Amino acid sequence: MRLPATLALVLRRAGANPAPVVSVAVNVLVVCTLVAGLAASLTLLQREALASALAVAPAEDTVLAASAPYDADDPAGQDAAVRAVLDPVVGVAGGIVVGLSGSGTYDLLGPAAGRDPGRTFATVDGAEDRLDVTEGRLPADSSGPLEVVVPASGDLAVGDELRLVGRADERRVEAVVVGRWGLPPGTERWLSGLDPEALLVAPERFADVAGTGTAARWRAVPDLEALGPDQLAPLVDEVVAASAELEAVGEELSTTVQAETGLVESLSTRARELTVLRALLVPAGLLVLVAAAGLVLVAAGLAVVRRDDEALLRSRGAGHWQLTGPTTTETLLLCGAGAVVAPLLASAVVRIGDVRPPLTLSAWVASTAAAAACALALSVPVAVRAVTGDRGQQLSVERQRRRTLTVLLATVLLVAALGVLAVVELRAFGGSVESATTTSTVDPLLVASPALLMLAVAVLVALLGLPPLFRLLARLVGSRGVPLALGSRFAARAVSRTVPLALAVTLASGTLAFAAVERSSSEAARSERASYVAGPDVRVTAPPDAQRAGVEAEREALAAVTGVESVSPVDRDSLFVDDLPADALLADLSATDPADLVGDADVDLSPLADGTGDTVPVAVTEDLADDASLDVGDTVTLSVFGVPTGLEVAVVLPALRTVTDGSGGILMDARAAGPVVRAAEEPDEWWLTVASGREDDVADAVRERPDLAADVLTRDDVLRRLDDDPSTGGAALAQVLVLTAAGTLVVGTLLLVSVVLLRRRERADQARMLGAAGGDRRSLTGVLAWEHAFVTGAGVVVGVLAGTAVAAVTLVSMTLGPDGRLLQPEPQLVVPWLPLLLPPLVMVTLPLLALVWLVRRDHGPGLSAPDTGGGR
Q1: Digit-coded pLDDT (tens) for 696-721
Q2: Could you tell me which residue, 620 or 155, shows the higher pLDDT?
Q3: What residues form the membrane-spanning segments (predicted)?
Q4: CB-CB contact of 229 with 271 (8 Å)
């Protein structure tokens, strides 16, 4: 069959029955749009995070600086040798190498002698592009007096004639001022080493003033705006190599070339942050899994719809290409159109926070890859059937059973292995983040791990649990009305049709549940982290002793702030228990809210007030007690506030807020410890209890009083830091989870509606069977609705449980603290029932309504014959 004839057949078939074509086209377009949008958005998020993080870094942390004594005999050779080493650094992502040379100190002669602090001469590569000449012009290489440009902030004017003498070698120089210069904003990275009071000269005349103490400097300045995440590792490698090569250049030049940079450490930090951002692909992997399952299901439905056409072609002696050509051509047209339209649609409908995916190369590549996967999934069933025909059905029953059991066993073993591998990989994620130093890449297996785990759970339950469940339900409701009984029996007997649908619903519901539980749990964990770090409503760190006004004056001033309900002093000390770091807190527990110290833990702190003798009752955290082998009643002598003090363990706490990460906690009550512990008269901190909703107002008011506070911290401050910190996933984590849930809801709903449209032939067969038994359209509607409810309901229940289980496994790995470390306190699973159950129910209810509408449209009241006109 030639291409024109194939196209004609495709168009004629689509015009006769457009429903399958439309459903497939919509599914392909949605999948390509989501994949393209996620790929482009995450690429943009990484690039913006990298650029913004490096933009606020200190200038010295973003350049490679080199310096050496100035070679007056061959300055050009020295410059060329150093630049040859630095050029590869700026060759990774672009940038420039700037040369600076500065002389020793010169003193002005004449009327200004004795008043001027001394001047240096300097020269800058490309001064015309990097300096502002506010008056006059730049110096030229003239044969007369040395032309110089003076700082615009000084008192020297254009036309002044200067006489200078070198302090070290008494070299005399006569110069004339031809201009005034200033540093434009944003040039710190290029000109950080330039003396702001230097007299600039032309590079060709710098040898005239290059006496003792003259130094040559170079700065390799990479282009941060053009630096991409994938260029971090090459840039770090070039910086490390250049630093080593500069020493060798110094030996060749018989001098010393020193390299200074904070670029390696800065880029390593950025790599850890980008590692976490790239882990945002994890929920996207679940969405791709749902889309893939949907495509497989739609492909199977399309193959059933096209079976009659292929049977007709086979009866006429058609070959493999004649059988597969029309469907393959149709698939390529639909997927090609989806690949072209998807990036344009994604830029309009997909959004992560304030980021909309641009029309970048990554969007087009992702869309093309998704379209290719769709085409493969849609074409494979047709191609397999064209090659094998009905040979599988010609096998004996025993051979078919053995083949089915073999495939089932292999599938179960495979998905079980994938599930175990996914759990191991997720548990190792924290280590992969902390070890990310010169690369920001994430193991692809990590990104796919939650999807693999979800797939393993769903497939195991679908293959091993759903068929017995359907049979059990059929027995339980077998005598409760014809629609209910027949619907349950259809679901139980047509396992090859119902289990794949239930599996797709399981995956979609599991992804929805995963997103809901992960988002609620991560938000709760961040809130608990904020309370752990901040402690009270407002925590005030006392100013330096020279600014303090006394305990009572500070207490009264803080209590007078509008919104403050109570003020409590707290002293803090750092100490060691058997070489284990610990933070000791001394607080008046009669005036301090226990929740500010131990949170919601049900702990009795009253024993801390019962101190007698020379020992002080204390509460210690569980981790410190376990590591130091301490138990209630044990006594230990430690240096507390510089004085050896006997401490008796009276209470063991689950955790103590405001304690430094990695340190244990020791809590003392000032009432019992006061006679023994010699803390400073003025407390280290003031803990404020504030009226609800007034925390920010009180914090702002206290910050305006430097005599009261060196620092002020609230829970909202900690939350904002977590949201702004890329190494924690920032606010993008919640946004990606919401986008994943929304995408899954759309994909799942469209998938189920497509299945309803593609199973029109099966509904017609069921209608004929029911009509022969005397049923009517109402009974058919009830039977099909109950069958749909049984299958999708089971999928929703299993999916919600599976998604919650996967979220529990991945919660610790996905919810990270600063620098990509695991969050402390450890996140706890939070199950939000309404967001957990409502989206899956919406996803299965809308296709159910579509099914009812299609049955009423396609069939007459008596089921004597289908109303085929409405479906054509």
Answers
A1: 999 999 999 988 899 999 999 988 88
A2: 620
A3: 26-45, 280-305, 361-384, 405-424, 444-466, 498-517, 736-758, 789-813, 833-855
A4: no
Examine the domain organization and report whether 67 and 44 are in the same domain. Answer: no
Q: Are 123 and 203 in contact (CB under 8 A)?
A: yes
Same structural domain, 76 and 191: yes
698 CB neighbour count, 10 Å cutoff: 24
Identify whether 593 is part of a domain. yes
133 by DSSP, 3-state: which? strand
Is the Cβ–Cβ distance between 526 and 716 less than 8 Å? Answer: no
Contact 344, 359 (CB under 8 A): yes
Q: Which of 675, 709, 743 is the last residue of a domain?
A: 709
- Rounded CA separation 440/274 (Å): 6
- The CA distance from 104 to 270, in Å, is 39
Nearest Cα to Cα of residue 854 among 765, 791, 750, 781: 781
Angstrom distance (rounded) from CA 669 to CA 588 = 5
Work out the average pLDDT over 238-248: 89
Q: Which residues contact 552 (CB under 8 A, 6 or more apart)?
A: none
Residue 11 has a CB neighbour count (10 Å cut-off) of: 13
- 218: tokens are 């170079």
Domain-embedded: residue 491: yes
Residue 537 lies in a domain: no
Tell me, yes or no, whether 678 and 731 share the same domain.
no
Sheet holding 564-577, edge to edge: 635-640, 643-653, 615-621, 664-669, 580-587, 564-577, 685-690, 538-541, 711-714
**Confidence at residue 444, expressed as pLDDT on a 0 to 100 scale:** 46
- Taking CA atoms, 610 is separated from 587, 648, 650, 651, 653, in Å, by 14, 11, 10, 12, 17
CB 434 within 8 A of CB 820: yes
Number of Cβ within a 10 Å radius of residue 602: 6
- Torsion angle of the four alpha carbons 292, 297, 302, 305, in this order, in degrees rounded to the nearest 10: 180
pLDDT value of residue 538? 94
Residue 620, strand partner residues: 652, 666
pLDDT at position 284? 67
Copy the structure tokens of residue 603.
């702990």
Closest CA to 87 of 181, 199, 218: 218
pLDDT digits (tens, 9 = 90+) for 449-502: 666 677 777 777 777 777 777 777 777 766 665 567 676 776 666 667 777 888
End-to-end CA distance of the chain: 26
Range of the domain at 465: 3-48+275-528+726-871
What is the rounded distance in angstroms from the CA atom of residue 175 to the CA atom of residue 119? 12
Report the distance separating Cα 362 and Cα 45, nearest Å. 13
699 and 837 fall within a common domain:
no
Give the pLDDT score at 302. 72
Residues 594 and 690 in one domain: yes
- Which residue among 680, 709, 738 closes a domain? 709
- Distance from C-alpha of 22 to C-alpha of 757, rounded to nearest angstrom: 10
Is 0.85 surpassed by the pTM of this model? no
618 lies in the same domain as 745: no
The rounded distance, in Å, linking the Cα atoms of 279 and 444 is 10
Question: Cα(827)–Cα(274) distance, rounded to whole angstroms?
Answer: 22
The answer to whether residues 672 and 761 belong to one domain is no
Alpha helices in 607-759 (DSSP H): 622-627, 670-673, 695-703, 715-724, 732-758
For residues 30 and 427, the model is more confident at 30
Residue 671: both structure tokens together: 């009432």
Residues 238 and 353 in one domain: no
Question: Which of 823, 615, 847 has the alpha carbon at shortest distance from 746?
Answer: 847
45: amino acid identity, one letter: L
- Taking only the tens place, the pLDDT of each residue in 283-324 is 766 777 777 777 777 777 777 776 666 666 666 666 656 666
pLDDT band per the 50, 70, 90 thresholds, residue 421: low
Q: Does 307 fall in a domain?
A: yes
Rounded-to-integer distance, Cα 216 and Cα 451, Å = 57
Cα four-point dihedral sign 805, 806, 807, 810: positive
Kindly state the tokens that stand for 709: 């506070």
Q: What are phi and psi of 215, to 5 degrees?
A: -130, 145
